[in-house]
Amino acid sequence: MARYLPSYILLLGLLSSTAFAMEERVTLMLTGPACTESHAAINHALEQTIGVRHVDLQAVPGHILLDVETGAVTADALEDQVNGILATHSSCRVEIMKSCISADPRPASTRVP
Amino acid sequence: MMRRQSQRIMTLAGATAIALGGLLGQMSSASAKTHDIHMTAVESDIVIDGGGEKYAAWTFNGTMPGPVVRVTEGDTINFTLTNPATNKNPHAMDFHAAEIDFLKNYKAINAGETISYTFVAKKPGIFFYHCGAPPMIQHVARGMFGAIIVDPKDAGAWAKADREYVLIQSEYFKNPGDVQAMFDRKFDGVMFNGGIFKYHPFVTGGGKLDAKPGERVRIYFVNAGPNEFSAFHPIGEIWDNVYESGNPANNLKGVQTYVVGPGSAATFDVVVDSAGAYPLVTHSLTGALRGAIAVLLASPDAKPSTNLMPMVPWELPAKTK
After folding, report:
1. For B244-296, how does the pLDDT look when each residue is reduced to its tens digit (9 = 90+)?
2. What CA–CA distance (Å, rounded) separates B50 from B291?
3. What is the DSSP letter of A93?
4. Spacing of C-alpha A41 from chain mean position
5. Which of B192, B204, B295 to mutate to test the interface with A (most CBs of A within 10 A)?
6. How far apart are CA B116 and CA A15, in angstroms?
7. Contact call for residues B295 and B272 (beta carbons, < 8 A)
């Protein structure tokens, strides 16, 4: 088994980096009067995050749409990361978007097993 | 004497009215247009969800739904359907806006054949069109449907819309060859304009429908089925007007949810009061939560929308990394 391990890891690496890996959208809701001022900082930080493929702060006002590689990063981790960036802006916080229309399309990373 | 004079005036007035009516009728038919509509039955794969999943569809002109046909009440449509020799199945076309012989005009044609017929769009509204080749349940489920808008001859018959969209609901069956699942109503999803959550920005690959606060948004809604009823509802709003079959004469006001059966249609007007998101759903939740949600996003910055069916076909944007 040991002699197969390097090629096994290589294969896993290839699979996870392929453009065809599964993707899901995480939606974070921004709350507070000073959120717009933080858009650039949030965008920059999220674009550097491993597993985040696309960041959109424009499509839905007051929300961050994130296309992430399934399994590479969780919605909770992204929420924590953005709130960390916003720690110096007490008038803006972020939380995972939940509503009646997100019941089923809720990303796998936020589902209770 | 007085009586005879009165009779003469009545006769003169009647003759004038008949002459005027005839003249108006001539003017009306002179202003009516003739449209040559040609569609091709195309059996090809199309993108069905935001993950890029492909579906072996049967379509009119290569898209699901087929192209929106738009004419004015009284117009004549010369329609031709071509079923290319490269196809494997017979196809047909049934226009709900037409009032013509079914046997002669809606018959299925084999691959390599063409059929033509003519009809006058006599009644205004939003109407379904679909393939009627057997098994019709499969031809509709696989994507052979669309909408024809017949605008009222009198544009003042209803309020002018600031923005218009066409939404067509249909069921999605994972296995397009499983006709029994279609008869058994074992659908795997419900779509608007041929996509699962196509206009749901919180879902991978999803978009939205744009509007500005205060605009009158008009939704021409068709339920293609093949089986399920739609309970069309705007979350966070109330339909200002619902026009059964899209006819301005059939005007309901202040409607929360309106049922549109398979093969039927209605036109919905909503004036969105304030900025925000207003999901348009079938309130039959097994359908909504499996794909039939279209988010109408009202924003002062909304760009004008000229496309009645945005994202048809569904072309997924390239990712930044």
Report:
1. 999 999 999 999 999 999 999 999 999 999 999 999 999 999 999 999 999 99
2. 11
3. E
4. 15
5. B204
6. 52
7. no
Q: Which two tokens stand for residue B4?
A: 């005879």
* Beta-carbon separation of B289 and A23 below 8 A: no
What is the C-alpha to C-alpha distance for residues A105 and A107, in angstroms, rounded to an integer?
A: 6
Alpha helices in chain B (DSSP H): 2-31, 102-105, 136-141, 179-183, 285-288
**How many angstroms separate the first and last alpha carbons of chain B?**
96
Q: Under an 8 A CB cutoff, do B204 and A24 touch?
A: yes
The answer to whether the CB atoms of A101 and B319 lie below 8 A apart is: no
- Cα distance between residue B110 and residue B133, in whole Å: 10
Judged by CB atoms closer than 8 Å, whether chains meet at B202 and A100 is answered as: no
φ, ψ at A99 (rounded to 5°): -160, 180
B126-140: per-residue pLDDT in tens?
A: 999 999 999 999 999
**End-to-end Cα, chain A, rounded Å:** 31
Do you find a cis peptide bond into B65, omega within 30 degrees of 0?
yes
Report yes or no: B170 and B66 within 8 Å, Cβ to Cβ.
no
CA B130 to chain centre: 11
Contacts of A27 in chain B (CB under 8 A): 201-202
* Tokens matching residue A40: 């650039």
Residues of chain B with pLDDT under 70: 1-30, 318-321
Q: Is residue B204 within 8 angstroms of chain A, CB to CB?
A: yes
CB contact under 8 A, B319 and A61: no
Å from A86 to nearest chain B CA? 22
Contact list, A67 vs chain B (CB under 8 Å): 204, 319
